[in-house]
Amino acid sequence: MTMTDTNPSGMKVSDEIAIEIRNMNKWYGQFHVLRDIDLTVRQGERIVVCGPSGSGKSTLIRCINALEEHQQGSIVVDGVPLSSDIKNIDRIRSEVGMCFQHFNLFPHLTILENCTLAPIWVRKVPKREAEETAMYFLEKVKIPDQARKYPGQLSGGQQQRVAIARSLCMRPRIMLFDEPTSALDPEMIKEVLDTMIQLAEEGMTMICVTHEMGFARQVANRVIFMDAGQIVEQNEPEAFFKNPQNERTKLFLSQIL
Ligand code: ADP
Ligand code: MG
């Protein structure tokens, strides 16, 4: 596959490999959920993963972060092999931020506390420094004024932006998004996508499971289509949408576009 170094907005992809997945297979009990996954992601890539419900998108994302175990093949993140060694798992988790469909904020903690909890307790960052970092990222996602509120007092879109800020406070090198806008009301989708676009423009390596095809066209340098646990097809967005090769991709696109 050929890949451009930049997309129209000039976002750069480096030669450095961020994630290398080789011949990876995963089962849930007897159920073969991921089949022969090969995927190399370079630093600065913005990859959109799409595919029908149940095709294994979330499972793939969760394997990269070691939230799920794989049974065969290898996953190497930033040079660290994802083995059962807990030290490696901790290291990978600290380099990889994750954002889910449901924001998973702690309801009994303020926005600021949600953002400082892990840096203080996992990274041992002094409280004041953690708060300064949190405010920096809350400003980035454009809600510094909500810092003293609780998640329940915020809109869904605001909560998702807090979840993104909270991940960024751990200074990840890679961000994984699993349908971050699919639980949001339509008028809030844009504000979350805008935050993600900004992150991409700053050079963050991102894998985003999303059906927001406008986002894919604008931001992705590569779109991956999954079906039945396999990567069926991948291409640059332009070619992917205009000229899908596989029948399953064509069917999927005809249903969502
Ligand atoms: P997607 O995100 O593409 O909708 P998932 O990765 O969530 O797909 O799920 C892929 C398949 O694995 C589905 O058939 C789902 O029912 C199954 N699955 C997901 N999680 C589990 C689990 N913890 N145990 C057993 N089966 C699961
Ligand atoms: Mg999913």
Automatic annotation (TrEMBL):
Residues 19-253 form the ABC transporter domain. Signal peptide: none annotated. It comes from the Bacteria. Pfam families: ABC_tran (PF00005). SMART domains: AAA. GO terms for molecular function: ABC-type amino acid transporter activity; ATP binding; ATP hydrolysis activity. The keyword ATP-binding applies. The keyword Ubl conjugation does not apply. SUPFAM superfamilies: P-loop containing nucleoside triphosphate hydrolases. InterPro entries: AAA+_ATPase, ABC_ATPase_HisP-typ, ABC_transporter-like_ATP-bd, ABC_transporter-like_CS, MetN_ABC_transporter-like, P-loop_NTPase. Transmembrane segments: none annotated. Keywords: ATP-binding, Nucleotide-binding, Transport. Belongs to the ABC transporter superfamily. This is Glutamine transport ATP-binding protein GlnQ. It comes from Jannaschia rubra. The lineage of its organism: Bacteria, Pseudomonadati, Pseudomonadota, Alphaproteobacteria, Rhodobacterales.
